[in-house]
Write a structure and sequence with these properties.
The protein is built from five helices and no strands. It is an all-alpha fold. InterPro entries: ASIL1/2-like, Myb_DNA-bind_4, SANT/Myb.
Length: about 220
């Protein structure tokens, strides 16, 4: 009699690994990298190779190396699509409420609006200047002196800017040292007061004991 052979059940396929969520830093760099690439293409659609460039730019600006997981070109494209959908809904909300708490609204709004056209940029008034006599050597010398003065002033300003971190750090260190010195003095004063109080307490105990002994001695004398 032949025994029926049972076939083992097929192995269950493993679960698909969940994608790593986007961090705030990655999202900001994605919007900025896409904006640069999109504007370079006159706001035209990106090709696969250009999405690869965006993904590489995001990873580089986040400081990732080849051993760390970074977002792929497809993930970047899908993320931008979701950001655009969220921006449209937030834009409608802003039109109704006047406010958006979405952290990427300003970046996406700048992306969609684009830079201000030349006609919309504020105009700079040019001050009126009278014609000068080009042959006036004294005035030219004064101008040279003014330019040298401006250069010296700028040089001093640059030196101050370069030296400012060291000055701030030194002032901060002196402040910390002063605070630590005050703290040590307060601790010393506290310890001195504690010792004085302890000495007084012991003296009071001794006086109390002596009074008690004197009272007992006087009582037995009678």
């Amino acid at each position: 009699m032949a025994t029926a052979t049972t076939t083992p059940p097929p192995p269950t396929p493993g679960k698909k690994p969940q994608p790593i969520p986007w961090t705030h830093q990655e999202t900001v760099h994605l919007i900025q990298a896409y904006e640069e690439k999109w504007y370079s293409l006159k706001r035209g659609p990106l090709k696969s190779s250009q999405w690869e460039e965006v993904a590489v730019t995001v990873a580089a600006r986040c400081g990732y190396d080849y051993t760390e997981p970074s977002k792929t070109a497809i993930q970047c494209r899908h993320k931008m699509e979701k950001l655009r959908q969220r921006y449209r809904s937030e834009k409608n909300r802003v039109n109704l409420v006047g406010l958006s708490v979405w952290p990427y609204f300003d970046l996406m709004d700048r992306l969609e609006r684009g830079p201000l056209p030349i006609s919309a940029q504020p105009m700079i008034a040019i001050p009126y200047r009278r014609d000068r006599d080009l042959d006036d050597e004294d005035e030219d010398d004064d101008d040279d002196d003014d330019e040298e003065s401006v250069i010296r002033t700028k040089s001093r300003s640059i030196d101050y800017i370069l030296k400012r971190p060291a000055i701030v750090n030194r002032a901060f260190s002196e402040r910390i040292v002063g605070m630590e010195s005050m703290k040590m003095e307060m601790m010393k004063d506290t310890e001195r007061c504690r010792r004085e109080m302890e000495t007084k307490r012991i003296e009071m105990i001794h006086r109390s004991h002596n009074k008690i002994l004197d009272s007992i001695t006087k009582a037995f004398r009678f």
